[in-house]
């Protein structure tokens, strides 16, 4: 097999080469951990292709087939006969690139990982490369990205690199972003659809792709140019099964094997020795909650279940009776907001137009220098959400810019949650807590809100180019700011933005990153940040630290901490830095619009109450039972509808509703599982929910074991009764409230 540049031309276009990065993972209930290194023992374990990587393989094959139809002329009878005669001389893995677009699959792992590669070949991939060496063992995501990037450079000419959104064992989603940073390429994460657009002419010529990207706000519509890296979600395609012919060809195929010396990697530069992060502790979390169990098999027991159900919703603020209790808090928050406005000039020292030489262009006038920090800094990266951003009109043709206009973005509550967690850590270290914002222009009230919720300073990088999240220029701007101020810790939310930006940034500056943390603490003896996160489908908890690299970086699971009560008496500084993107930092990505009003979209991560349905509902129409229950709750309750993997696979609901290891990991105040048995993969997505209510007729269903309230019975009898009880309660409470008001 020969790797390197190729230029097979049809109509002036070279054939596209697609690389797919895959990983072999263990079944989540068959995991062995090394107690000394804290890493997974992979040798000798039964493994499968990471399920989410199968979607990347399928999308690559779909692209390959669609491009082959475009670039390959119709064969004559003589050419077809010649192809049949030659078919025995070639096999999967042979150099078939000269016949059109190709798909090359790469993985890093032990020798027996070639089984995963052969499965990919049997699906239709053309070439396979196994990166295997004892020196790779124990690599964290940063070191893994180093190995993969080195291999990709050795491969040579390529146009598109695809991977699954994340691996089901580590569940970080960091490797695609870190590979992109190592290669200096743009990255697109959470890609839900991908189509060829048109060739792009000029200095940055390449294939143009239309990308639909799933975020908490909706679907971003983007135009990308190759080469680039993309990680895809389940929604992108439905993986095919290997064919008998494909399996036979895969068995006979050659798999290229490369080690440390082939990639010209120095000993100790990767593997455990070269990894910035180290696992210091592994423990197994408590699975069961020992909640209340009610067997609801008659009218009286269903009434008991309904009463308990209402009590839980009321206690968590989802019923009208709890709105009145929340009114005082709401008025207090309003008073704080008014106080923040009144004390704006007293509490907030504003330093305008500061300069950080590496960030501003030569076109900007000389500006005063950003002051150096006086003590160690802990950073929180703030996020903003579009407020009423228009969706892309249905009559807008694919590839055309949306006629929608974006309204002002608002501060996301995940930023205030991060400040609450970081405030405790910064106080223990005697550090300054800084909220860092990248935005078109930060509103003064947002800066005041950040100070009131715990920040000592706000640093705002402001410019037209920062109106929408674009990973590469944002990461480069932050890297320059980090080099200038050298923070000790950088924290971001584990959102679609944070899980894209922070891995790219960590790779740029050469430090470690821990994803999706649920606990953070300061190690007393060293002052290092201890970062605890779930792994292996939530079956294992790992505590990780970055001992020899700075800054220490982590993303934190949303809704794992409540914001602090705002304090309008706090004082702080707002430091504004004008940011003009240099031509060299410009991305090849083009933002076309945000599709928010899609009927199949659900932002489960932002919901305080999620009611989910599974196979027990029996058919799509029966999700109306859940919709009726949601309809009985007030709109301000922030209620979302979720689904199990099987319900989504059957087409009952779309992928954005899926909860679990291959869907969304959520932490709502209350999670209600209706007709969901509770497979390991599903439980991994809801372990950090504050309260879980299960409704299932099977008394042995695993979901009952982690529920705070387990209702055992026929959901078709129980759910309508719960909805009716909700309606009665709401009607009574509304009348009582109206009477008191009179």
Summarize the structure.
The protein has 742 residues and is α/β, with parallel strands linked by helices. The termini are far apart.
List the SSEs and their pairings.
Blueprint: E1 9-10, E2 13-14, E3 17-21, E4 24-26, E5 47-49, H1 51-71, H2 77-86, E6 102-108, H3 114-123, E7 127-131, H4 141-155, E8 160-164, H5 175-183, E9 187-200, E10 206-214, E11 219-225, E12 228-232, H6 244-252, E13 256-258, E14 278-283, E15 292-295, H7 299-315, H8 320-342, H9 344-347, E16 348-351, E17 377-381, E18 384-386, E19 409-411, H10 413-429, E20 432-439, H11 444-452, E21 457-462, H12 471-485, E22 489-493, H13 498-509, E23 513-517, E24 519-522, E25 529-535, E26 540-545, E27 552-556, E28 572-578, E29 590-595, E30 609-613, H14 624-631, E31 639-643, H15 645-649, E32 670-674, H16 680-683, E33 691-696, H17 702-705, E34 709-712, H18 715-741
Parallel strand pairs: 3-6, 3-8, 6-7, 7-13, 8-12, 9-12, 15-34, 16-28, 17-20, 17-22, 20-21, 21-28, 22-27, 23-27, 30-31, 30-32, 32-33, 33-34
Antiparallel strand pairs: 1-2, 4-5, 9-10, 10-11, 11-29, 14-26, 18-19, 24-25, 25-26
Helix pairs in contact: 3-6, 4-5, 5-13, 7-18, 12-13, 14-18
Description:
The model is unreliable at 1-12, 87-98, 201-205, 325-346, 358-362, 388-406 and 737-742 (pLDDT under 50). The protein folds into three domains: 9-71 and 91-185 and 227-275, HUPs (Rossmann fold); 292-318 and 608-741, TPP-binding domain (Rossmann fold), CATH 3.40.50.1220; 340-393 and 401-595, Rossmann fold. The radius of gyration is 27 Å and the shape is globular. The longest helix has 27 residues, at 715-741. It has 18 helices and 34 strands. It has a ten-stranded mixed sheet, sandwiched between helices. The chain has an eight-stranded parallel sheet with strand order 16-28-21-20-17-22-27-23, with helices on both faces. A six-stranded parallel sheet has the order 15-34-33-32-30-31. 30% of the residues lie in helices and 24% in strands. The protein has 742 residues and is an alpha/beta fold.
């Amino acid at each position: 097999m020969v790797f390197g540049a190729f230029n097979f031309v049809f109509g002036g276009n070279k054939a596209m080469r697609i690389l797919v990065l895959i990983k072999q993972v263990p079944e989540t209930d068959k995991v062995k951990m090394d107690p000394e290194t804290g890493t997974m023992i992979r040798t000798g374990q039964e493994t499968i292709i990471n399920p989410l990587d199968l979607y990347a393989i399928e999308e690559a094959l779909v692209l390959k087939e669609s491009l082959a139809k475009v670039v390959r002329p119709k064969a004559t009878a003589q050419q077809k006969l010649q192809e049949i005669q030659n078919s025995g001389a070639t096999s999967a893995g042979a150099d078939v690139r000269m016949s059109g677009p190709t798909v090359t699959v790469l993985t890093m792992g032990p020798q027996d990982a070639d089984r995963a590669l052969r499965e990919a070949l049997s699906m239709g991939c053309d070439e396979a490369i196994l990166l295997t060496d004892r020196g790779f063992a124990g690599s964290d995501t940063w070191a893994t990205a180093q190995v993969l990037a080195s291999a990709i450079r050795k491969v040579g000419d390529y146009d598109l690199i695809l991977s699954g959104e994340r691996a089901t064992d580590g569940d970080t989603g960091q490797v695609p972003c870190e590979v992109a940073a190592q290669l200096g390429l743009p990255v697109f994460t959470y890609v839900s659809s991908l189509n060829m657009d048109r060739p792009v002419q000029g200095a940055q010529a390449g294939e143009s792709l239309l990308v639909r990207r799933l975020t908490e706000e909706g679907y971003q519509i983007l135009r990308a140019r190759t080469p680039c890296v993309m990680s895809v979600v389940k929604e992108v395609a439905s993986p095919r099964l290997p064919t008998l012919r494909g399996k036979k060809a895969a068995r006979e195929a050659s798999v290229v094997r490369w080690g440390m010396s082939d990639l010209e990697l120095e000993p100790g530069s990767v593997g455990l020795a070269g990894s910035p992060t180290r696992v210091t502790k592994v423990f197994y979390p408590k699975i069961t909650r020992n909640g209340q169990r009610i067997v609801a098999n008659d009218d009286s027991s269903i009434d008991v279940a309904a009463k308990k159900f209402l009590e839980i919703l009321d206690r968590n603020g989802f019923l009208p009776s709890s709105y009145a209790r929340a009114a005082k808090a709401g008025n207090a928050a309003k008073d704080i907001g008014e106080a923040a406005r009144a004390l704006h000039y007293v509490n907030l020292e504003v330093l305008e137009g500061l300069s950080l030489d590496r960030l501003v262009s030569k076109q900007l006038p000389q500006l005063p220098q950003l002051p150096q920090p006086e003590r160690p800094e802990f950073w929180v990266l703030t996020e903003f959400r579009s407020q009423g951003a228009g969706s892309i009109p249905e009559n807008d043709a694919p590839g055309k810019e949306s006629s929608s206009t974006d309204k002002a973005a608002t501060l996301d509550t995940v930023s205030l949650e991060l400040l609450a967690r970081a405030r405790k850590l910064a106080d223990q270290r005697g550090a300054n807590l800084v909220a860092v914002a990248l935005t078109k222009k930060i509103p003064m009230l947002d800066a005041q809100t950040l100070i009131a919720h715990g920040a000592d300073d706000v640093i705002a990088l402001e410019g037209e180019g920062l109106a929408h999240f674009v990973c590469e220029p944002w990461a480069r701007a932050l890297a320059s700011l980090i080099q200038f101020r050298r923070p000790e810790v950088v924290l971001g939310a584990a959102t679609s933005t944070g899980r894209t930006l922070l891995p790219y940034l960590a790779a740029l500056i050469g430090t470690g990153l821990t994803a999706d943390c649920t606990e953070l603490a300061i190690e007393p003896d060293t002052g290092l940040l201890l970062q605890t996160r779930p792994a292996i489908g939530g079956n294992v908890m790992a505590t990780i630290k970055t001992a020899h690299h700075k800054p220490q970086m982590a993303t934190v699971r949303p809704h794992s901490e409540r914001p602090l009560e705002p304090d309008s008496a706090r004082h702080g500084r707002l430091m504004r830095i004008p940011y003009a993107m240099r031509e060299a930092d410009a991305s090849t990505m083009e933002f076309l619009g945000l599709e928010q009003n899609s009927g199949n979209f659900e932002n489960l991560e932002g919901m305080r109450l999620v009611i989910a349905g599974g196979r027990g509902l029996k058919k799509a129409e029966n999700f109306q039972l859940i919709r009726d229950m949601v309809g009985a709750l007030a709109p301000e309750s922030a209620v979302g509808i979720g689904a199990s993997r099987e319900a989504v696979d059957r087409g009952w609901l779309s992928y954005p509703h899926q909860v679990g290891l291959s869907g969304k990991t959520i932490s709502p105040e209350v999670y209600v599982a209706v007709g969901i048995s509770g497979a390991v993969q599903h439980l991994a997505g809801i372990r950090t929910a504050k309260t879980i209510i299960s409704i299932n007729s099977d008394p042995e269903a695993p979901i009952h074991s982690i529920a705070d309230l387990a209702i055992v019975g026929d959901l078709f009898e129980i759910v309508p009764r719960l909805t009716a009880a909700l309606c009665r309660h709401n009607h009574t409470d509304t009348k009582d409230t109206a009477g008191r008001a009179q």
